[in-house]
TrEMBL record:
<protein>
    <submittedName>
        <fullName>NAD(P)-dependent dehydrogenase, short-chain alcohol dehydrogenase family</fullName>
    </submittedName>
</protein>
<dbReference type="InterPro" id="IPR051687">
    <property type="entry name" value="Peroxisomal_Beta-Oxidation"/>
</dbReference>
<dbReference type="Pfam" id="PF00106">
    <property type="entry name" value="adh_short"/>
</dbReference>
<dbReference type="InterPro" id="IPR057326">
    <property type="entry name" value="KR_dom"/>
</dbReference>
<comment type="similarity">
    <text>Belongs to the short-chain dehydrogenases/reductases (SDR) family.</text>
</comment>
<feature type="domain" description="Ketoreductase">
    <location>
        <begin position="10"/>
        <end position="205"/>
    </location>
</feature>
<dbReference type="InterPro" id="IPR036291">
    <property type="entry name" value="NAD(P)-bd_dom_sf"/>
</dbReference>
<dbReference type="InterPro" id="IPR002347">
    <property type="entry name" value="SDR_fam"/>
</dbReference>
<dbReference type="InterPro" id="IPR020904">
    <property type="entry name" value="Sc_DH/Rdtase_CS"/>
</dbReference>
């Protein structure tokens, strides 16, 4: 089904849109009729400066007949987020959706992870999502409409090796998204998450140090970023006016609704309650059958994508 003109008159800000998933989202948004703010800092995954690809993405959107502007501000800085939102309203008169896609990786096993690498990833993913959404919220509240689409990851929702910083950031994004959905619902503003499976500049840096990881990366290579766009752009559209506070995952042609933490089983102690001995003798044995194993994402998504 064509996405043509599904987002006519909408203005969408896509962060980290110079490559990978963000680039695909920005181009597909343009094809669907939206005016697009293409944000890209112009830096590699490891932080070295490089020529920004935002202008190239803008050019591709314009060649296809769409409207777009390039932005080079930093999502990790509040003033950068404010500037990109201001650019959207200055250029196009409004802002209807933000897609918080910008990200970096600093993978490493926890016992080797530095404060600097932990801090850098949290700043871009979690603080970046907050900064851009917070700046956009003022516009959304005033116009009584808006959609926030946050990119989370099964690395946070489930777990992965050597990604404590990224996992913490992405699970934080899911919690932030739910809080925004709750707090902004009175102004008709929605907030949802997508955990994308796609080969991109970020996933290309995944450590391959086992046959299992090698197989996982091989599967990721087959999943193109454009597969993420239909759900993301649907969530940006008026058709999704009743969808908020949810966590989705997209893997090739599959769309998943992910669970959110809820109690699975309880035990109760009468009288004066629990003590150390009774916890070990009664509580833990009763709960143990519901313990979750130390899964990684590939253990849970163990079948081939369709």
């Amino acid at each position: 089904m064509s996405n043509s003109d599904q987002l006519t008159e909408k203005v969408i800000l896509v962060t980290g849109a110079g490559a990978g998933i963000g680039r695909a989202l920005a181009i597909e948004a343009g094809r669907a009729g939206a005016s697009v703010v293409v944000n890209d800092l112009g830096a590699s995954l490891t932080g070295e400066a490089e020529t920004s690809a935002a202008d190239e993405v803008v050019s591709e959107i314009e060649k296809a007949g769409g409207r777009a502007v390039a932005n080079g501000d930093d999502v990790s800085k509040p003033e950068g987020a404010q500037a990109m939102v201001a650019q959207a309203t200055d250029a196009f008169g409004r802002l209807d959706a933000v897609i918080n896609n910008a990200g970096i990786l600093r993978d490493g096993f926890f016992h080797k992870m530095t404060y600097e690498n932990f801090d850098a990833v949290i700043k871009v993913h979690l603080y970046g999502s907050f900064n851009v959404s917070r700046a956009a919220a003022d516009v959304f509240r005033e116009q009584y409409s808006g959609s926030i689409i946050n990119m989370t990851s099964t690395s946070g929702l489930i777990g992965n090796l050597a990604q404590a910083n990224y996992s913490a950031a992405k699970l934080g994004v899911a919690a932030l998204s739910k809080s925004m959905a709750l707090d902004l619902q009175r102004w008709n503003v929605r907030s949802n998450c997508i955990a994308p499976f796609a080969w991109s500049r970020m996933t290309s840096s995944i450590k391959v140090d086992s046959p299992e990881q090698e197989a996982r990366v091989a599967k990721l290579r087959e999943m193109v970023p454009e597969k993420i766009a239909p759900l993301a752009l649907y969530l940006a559209s008026d058709a999704a006016e009743d969808v908020t506070g949810q966590i989705f995952a997209v893997r090739n042609n599959e769309i998943f609704l992910m669970s959110q933490p809820r109690p699975t089983r309880s035990v109760h102690a009468g009288g004066e309650g629990w003590d150390i001995e009774s916890v070990g003798a009664r509580a833990i044995p009763a709960l143990r059958s519901h313990f979750l194993p130390l899964d990684v994402s590939a253990d849970v998504f163990s079948w081939d994508p369709v």
